[in-house]
Structures are given as C-alpha cells and as structure tokens.
C-alpha cells in the first residue's frame, strides 16, 4: 500500500518500490511510531478533531498491533513502503474508517522526524549506561593498581614514571566527557517536531505542546520547516559516538601493545582472546583489534550524515531517508564494541612486576635528577644540560642513573651528593608527584573517589 497513490494512474515499478522503500531499516522504530500515533490521536480527540469513540478504537488497535509485533504473532510486511505505512494499513484493516482518521493533521515527514528522535533517546540511554559501567570498571582497576609503577610515554618512548591506576583514570576522564556529550546532544534533540506536518503546519486547531509533553519532550519545535528538515541531532550524536570510538580505539591500541611479549604489562582472560589456526603459541587480542577497525565504520556514518545534509534545501528531501541507516549503524557498532570491551577489561590482569621492570629502564627519572639539582640552587636549564650529559654517560657505559657511581655525578656537577640516589628512586619519583592530577598513589585514590561520585 502506498499512501500517496491517489495522484498516480499506474502501479509503481517493483524495482523502484524496492529502491524507495525504507521498511528494512525503519521497521525497528515500530514502538516509537505507535507511541507517537497514540499521543497524536489523544491530542486530536482532546481538540475535538476526532471523536472519543474513534480514539478508543485507534488506541486499542495500536496497542494490540504493538503487542503482537513484540510477541511475534504479527510480522512486519517487508513489502510495505515504510513502518508508518505498515502500522496505519494494519490499523485500518482492523478498525475501518477510524484508522483513516489517525493521519489527520500530520505527515510522514513530521512522523519520521518524531520516531527517530524517540528512538535515539533510548539509544543514548543505552550507551550512557554502558559508559557508566565501563567507568566503574576503570575505577575498580585504578584503585587496585594505584601503586603499580609503570613508565609513562611520549612519542611511544619512556618518559616519566606514573602508575597503572593513573593511566587508566585518563581513559575514565575521556569516557566521562563522552557521557556529557551524549547528554548534551540528547538535550538539544529533545524537542517534538510532530504537528509540523509536511512542512507548513496545519489549519486544524492542534495542540502541539500537548503531544510534546505526553511524549516526554522538553517542548515543541518552533518552526515547522525546521521541524521536518532538521537532522542536526543525528550528526551531533554521530560526532559524539565518533569521538567515543576514538577513545576506545586508542585504549584498544594500548591493550594490543601491553599484551605483546615486548611489553607484557597485562594478561587478557582466555574468554576474551583468540588463537591462531597454525601457530599454537598465539593468544591474540582480537576484540581490541576489531574495535580499532570498527571505529572507521562510525567515522564513515558521520561522514555519510554530513555529506547527505550539506546540500539540501528546505524542507524535507528523500535524501534524508539515509539518516537512519547511518545513525543506527553508529549506535549498533558502539554498543557492540562496549558490550565486548567492558567484560574484557573487567577480567584483565595487570602484571606490575613487568611494568616496574620497564620503568627501571629508559631513564624515566631523569627529570627528577634535574629537579634535584634545581633544589640545590642550579637553574633548571643548567640542571637539564647536566642530567642530559649523565644520561649520555650511562648509555656509553651501559649503566643507569641508579647504578652510575657518585664520582661520575660529581664530575659532571659538583652539587651532586648521596641524596641524588634517594631523589631518583622510582617510588619516590611517583609518590612526590602530588600536584593536582598527578600520579602519586594518594592522588589516584582521591581521583577514584571523585570519579565514582561523578559517575553515579
């Protein structure tokens, strides 16, 4: 059934119908379509546009359709043009002319704009809850490994000593921003387009604020053209999801590195790893590798939405049918990645002794050595130069700053004394970094406490 057949004298070409149809992907919005229709019919009755008898038939019929779809007793017709056509056609076949009155004072243009907003509200909540769970896992791990010294990196070169707990909390901060972005986008999305009709509103005495309130919106959209043609919320949500995938991909890359024998900072649970068909020794971090790859899908969904919208004149254009596949795929991909990532991280075991061993090399306490000279009154740039000479000397002699004899220190700078060895002790280097946001264990534990409060 096509709702627009009255103007046409021929049946639509089957291939054209398939190309035009959106039922394959918008059928997942059947709940939202039915909920929106119930709210719309309730408003029409309240305004005297349809009768109470018709309202009762419409509401009962729609509720029955939803229940039967959910139970599997009613299958959505794949030949229907879209979910709106299917629901209205099914309703009319059951209750007769009352079903034909449902579409009074609305269009599929504002109907689909409504459905996708309602649907994406739930999707935002799902991802938000998953992120909350992931941050909880990170807090638990950060607390457990607050004292596990490891090298921090810049340029993938060992740089300064931190703790594993401190490192994990950096990702918790990123994920908290992801949660905030979703909430912000959801807040801007939460305005009701229903009643904008095709593009110019209606001559009926409708109450758009009533339907907006009934459906849990903050209010009605104020311009009917904007109501049917706005897809900013799809682009904004896809952007937020893309940034989230950047964070998951970066984290995944580190896990891939940490799992390797070259690092061996962590061990993934066997339940979240795979092997090789030919190399029996292999234990591969496939989940994290897939997440790295799937990030490109979400970025592509964002590009699709931006490209789709960039040249469209007001108001509705059929191009906008492409919004759903892109934004649905973005949410589906993110939720799938988080579903795998959360338990993988929760069951991950850190290997602090390997982290500590790596921290002992690479001269990551060189800054602390320079700071020691600054404490003796030497300007930092001079202290930096002297420490650089010591590092070069250690490399030439195959030593570390901890094993370099004091005489060699004094030969470079007379201000050195036995206290330097305490100053460059890795535990002290970490414990003394108590500045706000620093990796000292007491800081990490305080950050965990604050993070739990923010995440609750």
* Fraction in beta strands: under 5%
Shape: elongated
Mean pLDDT: 94
Unreliable spans are none
Number of helices: 20
Radius of gyration: 31 Å
What is the H/E string? HHHHHHHEEHHHHEHHEHHHHHHH
* Number of distinct beta strands: 4
Q: How does the major sheet shape up?
A: 2 strands, antiparallel
Please state how the strands of the largest beta sheet are arranged side by side: 1-2
Helix-strand makeup class? mainly alpha
Give the proportion of residues in helices: 55-70%
Question: Could you name the key traits of this structure?
Answer:
63% helix; 456 residues; two-stranded antiparallel sheet; mainly alpha
Plain-language structure description:
The strands form 2 sheets. A two-stranded antiparallel sheet has the order 1-2. The two termini are 49 Å apart. Helix 7 runs antiparallel to helix 8 (164-189), helix 8 (164-189) packs parallel to helix 20 and helix 11 packs antiparallel against helix 12 (286-309). It is mostly helical. It contains 20 helices and 4 strands. The longest helix has 37 residues, at 108-144. The radius of gyration is 31 Å and the shape is elongated.
């Amino acid at each position: 059934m096509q709702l627009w057949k009255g103007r046409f004298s021929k049946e639509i070409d089957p291939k054209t119908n398939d190309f035009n149809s959106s039922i394959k992907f918008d059928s997942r919005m059947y709940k939202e379509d039915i909920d929106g229709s119930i709210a719309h019919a309730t408003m029409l009755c309240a305004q005297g546009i349809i009768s109470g008898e018709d309202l009762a038939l419409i509401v009962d019929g729609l509720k029955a359709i939803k229940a039967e779809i959910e139970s599997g007793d009613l299958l959505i017709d794949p030949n229907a043009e879209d979910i709106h056509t299917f629901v209205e056609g099914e309703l009319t076949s059951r209750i007769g002319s009352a079903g034909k009155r449902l579409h009074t004072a609305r269009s599929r243009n504002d109907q689909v704009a409504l459905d996708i907003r309602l649907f994406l509200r739930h999707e935002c909540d799902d991802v938000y809850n998953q992120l909350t769970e992931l941050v909880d896992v990170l807090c638990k791990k950060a607390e457990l490994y607050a004292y596990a010294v490891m090298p921090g990196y810049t340029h993938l070169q060992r740089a300064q000593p931190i703790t594993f707990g401190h490192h994990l909390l950096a990702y918790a901060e990123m994920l908290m921003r992801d949660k905030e972005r979703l909430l912000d986008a959801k807040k801007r999305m939460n305005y009701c387009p229903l009643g904008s009709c095709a593009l110019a509103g209606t001559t009926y005495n409708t109450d758009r604020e009533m339907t907006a309130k009934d459906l849990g919106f903050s209010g009605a959209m104020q311009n009917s053209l904007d109501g049917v043609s706005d897809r900013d919320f799809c682009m904004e949500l896809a952007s937020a999801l893309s940034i989230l995938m950047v964070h998951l991909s970066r984290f995944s890359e580190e896990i891939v590195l940490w799992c390797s024998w070259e690092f061996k900072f962590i061990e993934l649970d066997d339940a979240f790893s795979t092997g090789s068909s030919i190399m029996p020794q292999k234990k591969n971090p496939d989940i994290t590798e897939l997440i790295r790859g799937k990030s490109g899908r979400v970025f592509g969904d964002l590009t699709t939405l931006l490209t789709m919208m960039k040249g469209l004149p007001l108001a509705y254009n059929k191009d906008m049918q492409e919004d759903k596949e892109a934004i649905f795929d973005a949410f589906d991909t993110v939720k799938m990645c988080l579903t795998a990532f959360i338990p993988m991280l929760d069951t991950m075991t850190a290997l602090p002794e390997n982290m500590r061993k790596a921290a002992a090399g690479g001269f990551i306490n060189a800054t602390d050595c320079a700071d020691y000279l600054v404490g003796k009154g030497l300007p930092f740039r001079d202290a930096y130069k002297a420490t650089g000479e010591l590092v070069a000397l250690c490399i030439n002699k195959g030593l570390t700053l901890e094993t370099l004899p004091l005489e060699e220190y004094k030969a470079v700078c007379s201000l050195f004394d036995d206290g330097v060895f305490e100053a460059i002790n890795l535990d002290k280097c970490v414990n003394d970094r108590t500045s706000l946001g620093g990796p000292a264990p007491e800081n990490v534990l305080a950050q965990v406490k604050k993070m739990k409060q923010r995440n609750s």
